[in-house]
Design a protein that fits this description.
The protein is α+β, with helices and mostly antiparallel strands and about 130 residues long. It has one domain (about 15-125): Nucleotide cyclase, GGDEF domain (Alpha-Beta Plaits, 2-Layer Sandwich), CATH 3.30.70.1230. About 35% of the residues lie in helices and about 25% in strands. The strands form 2 sheets. Strands 1-4-6-5 form a 4-stranded mixed beta sheet. Strands 2-3 form a two-stranded antiparallel sheet.
Amino acid sequence: MAVFGAPLSDGDDCLNRVSAAREILLRVEEEVALGHVLPTTVGIGLHAGEAVTGSIGSSLRKEYMVIGDVVNLASRIEKLNKQFRSRLLVSENVWQSLGENPTEAIPMGNVQVTGRENGIGIYQLA
């Protein structure tokens, strides 16, 4: 899991998310092509929203945590990559905040995800 915009935002959190995800996919492809790793498929799911963030634990061991519905939904979007045979899926929240040309994505429609009564808009970027 990677977090963008917490604890501070630079205003381009969704763009940064997508850029990092694309870089991860490119890097995996390069490492496979060079024979540094076995053929590997990576699936990434991105969502944006409010979460509870902060350090928890004791003085001996602290951990930065991010919890909330946004985290759960991102995880469920990531799992949809198997169903769609894709590598990068984003929620409509992320897609709308990018300001990119819609032809760069494949709209997957409203998709039902576990734990949601209504489907959510999903776009395939890779």
